């Protein structure tokens, strides 16, 4: 099973032929700029489409702290995303309170563990909307 850096590498090498379909769901690659280092970091994340947007969840498995990629988008919301062979620039934003219930339900249908992750932590797990820029 692909995971972490190996997942990213195989996804990039095969334009997602390996790595897009993962554990009965779909994965994109999200590249953020480090808020301290300024370096690029690429993370494989489960996603779903919602209209023209892509939706991901900053769950970190229910950890009490946000994942690093989420902290990076708070500092710099311009990101790069790759869905299979489609690479694009996007603006990442946290879903509003009004949007979140619908988007959370969408994501929990594709990865039911999200509901368990939320029960494990006092942190409100953010849902992130990636809006294509170009």
From TrEMBL:
It catalyses: oxidized coenzyme F420-(gamma-L-Glu)(n) + a quinol + H(+) = reduced coenzyme F420-(gamma-L-Glu)(n) + a quinone. GO terms for cellular component: plasma membrane. GO terms for molecular function: coenzyme F420 binding; oxidoreductase activity. Residues 1-21 are annotated as: Disordered. It holds the Pfam family F420H2_quin_red. SUPFAM superfamilies: FMN-binding split barrel. PANTHER family: F420H(2)-DEPENDENT QUINONE REDUCTASE RV1261C (PTHR39428:SF1). Belongs to the F420H(2)-dependent quinone reductase family. This is Deazaflavin-dependent oxidoreductase (Nitroreductase family).
């Amino acid at each position: 099973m692909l995971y972490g850096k190996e997942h990213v590498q195989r996804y990039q090498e095969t334009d997602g032929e390996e790595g897009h379909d993962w554990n009965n769901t779909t994965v994109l690659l999200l590249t953020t700029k480090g808020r301290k280092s300024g370096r690029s970091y690429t993370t494989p994340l489960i996603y779903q489409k919602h209209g023209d947007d892509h939706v991901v969840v900053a769950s970190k498995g229910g950890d009490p702290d946000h994942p690093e990629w989420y902290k990076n988008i708070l500092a710099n919301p311009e990101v790069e995303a790759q869905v299979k062979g489609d690479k694009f620039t996007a603006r990442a934003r946290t879903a509003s309170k009004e949007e979140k219930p619908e988007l959370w339900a969408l994501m929990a249908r594709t990865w039911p563990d999200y509901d368990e992750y939320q029960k494990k932590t006092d942190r409100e797990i953010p849902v992130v909307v990636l809006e294509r820029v170009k």
